[in-house]
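Long-time lurker. I teach an intro course on protein structure, and each term I like to show students one example going from raw sequence to a predicted 3D structure in token notation. This year I'd like something fresh instead of my usual example. Would anyone be willing to generate the tokens for the chain below so I can use it in lecture? Attribution to the forum is fine with me.
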Amino acid sequence: MLTLSQIILVIVVTILSILLIIFSIYIFRILEE
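-- Reply from a regular --
Happy to contribute to a lecture. Here you go:
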């Protein structure tokens, strides 16, 4: 059973990972111009 703090940690890490991927794709597209 996950505790609330573990759930929050997982959510934060997931959001940060998604933002990092989006940012990387955005930078890559700019560099491709």
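Some talking points for your students: The first helix runs from residue 4 to 32. The chain has a mean pLDDT of 96.
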